Amino acid sequence: MTSFDKPTTPDPEGGPSPDPASDQAAVTQAALFDAFGGVRGTVETMLPGLLFVMIYTVNKDVKMSAIAAGAVAVLLVIVRLLRKDTVKHAFSGVFGVGVGVAFALFTGTAKGFYLPGMIYGAGLGVAFTVSALVGFPLLGVILGPVFKENLSWRTRNPGRKKAYTKASLAWGLIFLAKYAILFPLYWWGDATQLGWVLIALKLPPMVLAVYFTWVFLAKAPPPIDVIAEWEAKDAAAEAAKAAAARERGA
Question: Does the predicted TM-score (pTM) go above 0.90?
Answer without folding.
Answer: no
